[in-house]
TrEMBL record:
Residues 3-271 form the Nucleotidyl transferase domain. Keywords: ATP-binding, Carbohydrate metabolism, Glycogen biosynthesis, Glycogen metabolism, Nucleotide-binding, Nucleotidyltransferase, Transferase. Belongs to the bacterial/plant glucose-1-phosphate adenylyltransferase family. This is Glucose-1-phosphate adenylyltransferase. It comes from Roseomonas nitratireducens. The keyword Transmembrane helix does not apply. Its EC number is 2.7.7.27. One of its GO terms (molecular function) is glucose-1-phosphate adenylyltransferase activity. The keyword Transferase applies. The record marks Q54, W93 as: Could play a key role in the communication between the regulatory and the substrate sites. SUPFAM superfamilies: Nucleotide-diphospho-sugar transferases, Trimeric LpxA-like enzymes. Gene3D superfamilies: Hexapeptide repeat proteins, Spore Coat Polysaccharide Biosynthesis Protein SpsA, Chain A. It catalyses: alpha-D-glucose 1-phosphate + ATP + H(+) = ADP-alpha-D-glucose + diphosphate.
Amino acid sequence: MAYVLAGGRGSRLMELTDRRAKPAVYFGGKSRIIDFALSNALNSGIRRIAVATQYKAHSLIRHLQRGWNFLRPERNETFDILPASQRVDERSWYLGTADAVFQNLDIIEDYAPRFMVILAGDHIYKMDYEQMLAQHVESGAEVTVGCITVPRMEATGFGVMHVDAADRITAFVEKPADPPAIPGEPDKALASMGIYVFDTRVLAAELRRDAADAHSTHDFGKDLIPHIVAKGRAVAHRFERSCVRSGAEAAPYWRDVGTVDAYWHANVDLTDIVPDLDLYDRAWPIWTHAEVTPPAKFVHDVEGRRGEAISSLVSGGCIVSGARVRRSLLSTGTHLHSYAALDGAVVLPNVDVGRGARLTNVVVDRGVRIPDGLVVGEDPDLDAERFRRTEGGICLITQAMIDRLD
């Protein structure tokens, strides 16, 4: 059974998560961030899936109901959405990642899966969990922790594994100032991906022990995993062993799009001729809710008023009417009017860009109406007064910000 933890707010995405949880944020024109973990589970052959939600979950739950309702109980498949609902007592919502599983332990045990794959619902990557499950069984571990290899001093923001030569975890430290190196690779460290494989009986026992500990924060990375490392057998699984790559992907791809800058870069990178992430790999599709839309449309063909898109991704239902788009991503239902110009724009669904507007290095939230002639991305000081401007120079635009311009 795959259990996806999707309750996080994602506050570093600023206004993008004012009305939706981070896993529900749009990505790549058609998908949501959570679709990657769910698609990995489905493509790995897992047909029992549960998603725990909490923070501002309506958008996420609506997406899951529309896009992931094809699993059928009569085929021994299940898909459960598990909002925080004070099931253990009448005071507690989900207190941490481990508690979000503990509060639904009766549901899990009713299905009686032999193994549990615990997943974070807020990262972009393609991974075959079957490979990780196989290692877990072969190693006899009580928990197997998915890890990515990162430069050692970039691991200070992660949970970091100290491993021996056989990849048994000897220590687990959260956000260390001096991360432990991989044996034989002094400049690299193993950082946790927030992916864990347990035997279900082991997980249930650990969750009950943790729930009874009044001093615990009830978190996998801070409490459960360090306890198993100290008292039992924990093994690291290296992402490069199970990452899924088409012939077009040169290196393992994993991204935490937890800031506006990181989110912008990951989306705009998809416009590269050969991007680091191949969304066109039909052998490992990213499943999502497929809206019924007409094809994208480009109209007008006169100098200065030509509907065109260069090095860009344009989703269904978009109309590029006499506007110029370069190195941008247009989500479903975007409408660009004549003489508008977009460069380095990540545009979420159903945005309307007025005549003559110029947008450079921006993220535009869903449903925004850009007024005629608005210029963003050319005057940093003016941008910072009107919009959310990041340290990397990316401007986040919401409808509330546009309304304040009046």
